[in-house]
Design goal:
single chain, 303 residues, alpha+beta, Beta Polymerase, domain 2, Four Helix Bundle (Hemerythrin (Met), subunit A), 2 domains, four-stranded mixed beta sheet, two-stranded antiparallel ribbon, 10 helices, elongated, HEPN_dom, HEPN domain-containing protein
Amino acid sequence: MHINGPGNRIEFHTNIFLNEDGHAKDISNWKERLLAIIQHVPDKADTLKPIIQFLVMTIAPARIYMLDHKNIVNQPAPTHIDLLLVIPNKNNIPFTELEPVIEIPYLKESRVACSLHNEGVVLEALRNGHIFYALHFTAENLIYDNTTISYPALSTEAVKEMKQRAREKFLQHFERAEDFYTSAEFLYQKRPGKIIAFLLHQAAEFSYRGILLSLNGYDKRTHEIHSLKKHSRRCAPQLNTIFSGDAEEEKRLTELLNNAYLESRYDSNYEVNENDLNIIFEKVKALQNTCKELVEIKTNLDA
């Protein structure tokens, strides 16, 4: 049996081989199950139907959510689709054995990334008002449901309180990020030097940490820009278009900023030329503007 998307829009194929000795009734039931999987898939996930069929037949998640990554002014839209797979507690297969399967699906123009989430953990997080789960494991983002159990939902008042706390947590780090950036600008006008790269590193670090704390409920304590980028990809993928690392020049600039935390202060051979410094200034400013806009959108008290 061959599955592909409508209008040949999907560069994804699943070839399913049926046992020739199988009973016709079993085969018919199996085909009916495949069709039933996509009966209630919303229109926004239409091109993902083959992927949803594949994931449900191979992993059997309780639910699948598709993240809605908001477009940010002056930043390219994310080039990937995030699917969150909720795995039932009764599934005893270790996540490490399931992970190779979820890297298979892909689309022509967008990469599909899947993450696994234990159902018990999800339910507990929703009851406790965890910011990441409350914002993303919603009815609006749901694209598949085996309808086994109902999930808790926060009251309107609880959601507003959660968003207000998220804003306050963001500002805890972001105010420091802005201070570091302002200090870098001031010093650049007075006496340019490689210590400015350290200040810009801190401006970027605290911007990332502010996003992670407010939108992911996670205070990642590290000075590694690479690590902060990785951890923020799911809750704020828009940030990865700024220090993208896609091209060699982008990788070089990101590495230059990443190394600035220690080398700009302790390595006499560390150098950053004026052109690179100006580009990093622009990128860190874009990072901060994007962080602010993301938090404003996701913690909008009227939404």
